[in-house]
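Late entry, 5'-deoxyadenosine complex.
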Amino acid sequence: MADLVERFVRNHRLADGEEYRMLLECLKEPAAAEYVRAEAVRIRKKYYGKNVYVRGLIEFTNYCKNNCFYCGIRRENHRAVRYRLSVEEILECCENGRKLGFRTFVLQGGEDPWFTDERLAELVRSVKGAFPDCALTLSVGERSFDSYRTLRKAGADRYLLRHETADEAHYGILHPADMSLSARKQCLYNLKKLGFQTGAGFMVGSPGQTYQNLASDLMFLKELQPEMAGIGPFIPHHDTGFAKEPPGSVELTIKLLSVIRILLPAVLLPATTALGTLAHDGRERGLAAGANVVMPNLSPKKNRKQYSLYDHKLCEGEEAAEGIRSLRRRIEAAGYQLSMERGDAAGF
Ligand code: 5AD
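Prediction complete; structure with ligand written out below:
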């Protein structure tokens, strides 16, 4: 048992899904979990020192043509109050962020058909034109290779697209039949090929998830070699079929952050909002497990509540861009340095 953990820490990989599943079993042992956590912190320090990178998250549309069963802004949630920011509003969010020192903006939205390639590319050009020293990350779901190429050419630097689960059958529990894991994976390979710094990731404790599924997630991440990985606990949303499902475990999420840091040493790994939502000290615990990114919310205050992916999603205090000073205090109190650099992936 301990042998397996040791081998994982040494080689940054295991042989197969069964070994990854066993690794997660081993981490039920507190001493093993602590060993892996300490190793993850050592690796993060080696690649990124004390730096914690900041991304300003702009949730610019909550229209979505998809119907993912877990998500509060899915198409069939007719109670969601829909909004779409104008280019002017988005630029104003960036302006606010830039004044606070942000050098990465993440434009995240549902899969909103209003944003054709032309409109999105124009948006990307506007943001990059106005803030040439800032990195621009898109997170707008599945699109064609040509579409991604257009967005890359327009100046987008990075792209976040969580795979959600790397197990075919589990993917089918979380998504309607018109979505597929293979399409999702193809998008991620396309993004990598086009030179985006690419982020994949998954929810922890989503309905029906097993350790075997998580083992598949880890193997997929190892194969894809994303520059970024976003993981957070599943949290039920009251207007979804999963309203009565239990949330994912904060402890397991934290262990997985450490495992991912070891698996992909140079990965940019956020302590996510979902983690902060389930535990008041979730962000600090995420950082102490090997995470090195925080993503405060830069969306207009009037719209923040409307981007409701799950219940009680944090969008105030240190989760908000205007809370950057107290965020910095907390992060520095925990022994890190809040970096205002672009924070590209090491070696990219
Ligand atoms: N709980 C936790 N995370 C969720 N997401 C969507 N719905 C939920 C939920 N109920 C995550 C998905 C998506 C990201 C933007 O938010 O992983 O990729």
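The chain has one domain: 2-339. Will revisit in the morning.
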